[in-house]
Design goal:
About 15% of the residues lie in helices and about 30% in strands. It has about 190 residues and is α/β, with parallel strands linked by helices. The protein folds into two domains: about 90 residues, Rossmann fold, CATH 3.40.50; about 90 residues, UDP N-Acetylglucosamine Acyltransferase, domain 1 (3 Solenoid). The strands form four sheets. The chain has a six-stranded mixed β-sheet with strand order 3-4-2-1-5-6. The chain is globular, with a radius of gyration of 16 Å. The termini are far apart.
Length: about 190
């Protein structure tokens, strides 16, 4: 098992921990969070400190996942991902064993695919994405870097989701639709 550090200790982190534990590929050795006191427990794992410890964990060879959620803005996730890349960090991805990811799909580094999500043949998911529980990414769809596809959202065949976009719970993006960069799609919205 590889050592893994999570950045961010809130609710999204707890969900990431659940996926990581189920997958069984990584050993979580700490959580970094600028807003939680050192020693705070998050699902049984200690907050080791804040982001100032990143470079030390990089030198130790740890892998990282950005475990901050993304609803209001993508900027904190993008900033942390860029900092990790600039620091030479190893970026991990995690896929729930209850998710289905086609062997013909491409998944970028840092992406977490949650329970019961479906990613079909020819789909391309970028780096540092959140593909939340029960989301469907259909054949040949493209989800660019730093996107959050929320619970039970559907991205239909050959649709394109621009970088940094948020797709709300239960939203539907129809076949071949093109969602621009940094878009915010509300829960239940249909995008044609």
């Amino acid at each position: 098992m590889k050592d893994l550090v999570l950045i961010g200790g809130g609710g999204h982190c707890r969900s990431c921990i659940d996926v990581i534990e189920c997958e069984g590929k990584f050993r979580i050795i700490g959580i970094l969070d600028n807003g939680l006191p050192c020693g705070t427990s998050v699902s049984g794992y200690d907050v080791a400190g804040n982001d100032s410890l990143i470079e030390g964990f990089v030198r130790k060879g740890a892998c990282f996942i950005v475990a901050l959620g993304q609803i209001r803005t993508v900027e904190p996730r993008k900033r942390l991902f860029a900092f990790l890349k600039d620091s030479g960090a190893k970026i991990a991805s995690a896929v729930s064993p209850s998710a289905y990811v086609s062997k013909y799909a491409d998944i970028g580094e840092g992406t977490v695919i949650f329970h019961h999500a479906l990613v079909n043949a020819g789909a391309k998911i970028g780096r540092n994405c959140i593909i939340n529980s029960k989301a469907l990414i259909e054949h040949d769809a493209v989800v660019a870097d730093h996107c959050h596809v929320s619970t039970s959202a559907t991205i239909n065949g050959a649709a394109k989701i621009g970088e940094g976009s948020f797709i709300g719970s239960g939203a539907v993006v129809v076949n071949n639709a093109d969602v621009g960069k940094a878009s915010f799609i509300k829960s239940g919205e249909i995008v044609k």
